[in-house]
Amino acid sequence: MAERVAVIAGDGIGREVVPAAVAVLDRVGEFEFVEADAGDAVRDETGAALPAETRALAASADATLFGAAGETAADVILPLRRAVDAFANVRPARAYPGVDALQPETDLVFVRENTEGVYAGIENEIAAGVTTLTRVVTAAASRRLADFGFEYAAEGGYDVTVAHKANVMGVTDGQFLAAVRAVADERGAAHEEVLMDALATDLVMHPEDHGVVICPNLAGDVLSDLAAGLVGGLGLLPSANVGPERALFEPVHGSAPDIAGEGTANPAATILSAAMLLEYLDHEEAAARVREAVTTVLAGGPRTPDLGGSATTEAVTEAVFARL
Ligand code: NAI
Ligand code: MG
């Protein structure tokens, strides 16, 4: 039976890059695509940015491909990630031959805690002018993430760097670090522990010294966007939100209202997200073909304006098709 893939294009350029990625998936595999709405446009129509049936679809599909939401992003993507119990957010940041990158040696994969930390959503105003935020770090979530990160690194032949700030947040990041060390011990795996602020500097100056970066939620959000800057921009970064039973794939970028509707959005991030989806569903060979096609097109063009070219989303997608 064909695997069921939920397709949620969302807003802005999500509606341009998701169809491109779906066409690629359709070309290399046999899937049952089920489309659903989410984002600003649905909110304006119905009052709810994430309709219950969209959430239910993501919670039951074999995998979900999501584009981007606009100002309702937090109301859409956070519940969607919860719907698939996505505990790990995987964000590869690779420099591609032919693409102007600040650091052409970059080959990083951020494995980011996706359920807690300072994004647990516990904020309060406890008195006028006094606000607080509660950071949640559990041994179970830290362990589950570390296990996933070390496994991913072992499979891909990457070194492991762990980002933390246990010198200041001794209790919460202390626990995070203890979980990582325990997993490393059990696996007999090496890892390097780096304070997250110092790591920001090192990633800019020596990204080639790092591979898989296991990090708490906020640190992973910030450091992966920093890495996008090293490799040529947000149009190139795919991501996976992986849960125990299912997963959701999305470009790291947002709805890009500044270019939406022009037909010039770079589809690479979303097509590469589709390649991660293929890999997750054990279609390794198809995933490799898609990655190779994207890499070839990035190297030789055509390229969209964000990469210095003048090609449309459609022309780039056609070129990827031709390489498949
Ligand atoms: P953004 O990622 O949408 O855009 C940042 C810059 O990168 C813009 O100049 C944009 O044109 C460019 N860019 C992004 N993706 C591109 C692509 N594929 N091809 C060419 N250029 C690309 O982030 P921004 O501007 O901060 O947010 C815009 C909207 O997107 C906001 O409403 C925000 O809430 C939402 N957002 C949604 C996310 C999601 O749904 N996961 C993630 C980030 C932002
Ligand atoms: Mg972000």
Report on the structure:
The chain is α/β, with parallel strands linked by helices. The chain is 44% helix and 20% strand. The protein has helices at 14-28, 40-46, 52-60, 73-83, 139-156, 172-187, 196-205, 217-231, 268-280, 284-300, 313-323, and strands at 3-10, 31-35, 63-68, 88-94, 107-113, 123-127, 130-133, 160-164, 192-195, 212-215, 238-242, 247-251. Strands 2-1-3-12-11-4-5-10-8-9 form a ten-stranded mixed sheet, sandwiched between helices. The radius of gyration is 19 Å and the shape is globular. The two termini are 24 Å apart. The model has no long low-confidence stretch (mean pLDDT 97).
The end-to-end span amounts to: 24 Å
Strand order of the largest sheet: 2-1-3-12-11-4-5-10-8-9
Shape verdict: globular
Estimated helix fraction = 40-55%
Write down the oligomeric state. Answer: single chain
> How would a textbook summarize the main sheet?
10 strands, mixed
What class do helices, strands and sheet pairing give? alpha/beta
The set of bound ligands, ions and cofactors reads: 1,4-dihydronicotinamide adenine dinucleotide, magnesium ion
SSE ordering: EHEHHEHEEEEHEHEHEHEEHHH
**Number of E-state strands:** 12
Please state the average pLDDT score: 97
Radius of gyration: 19 Å
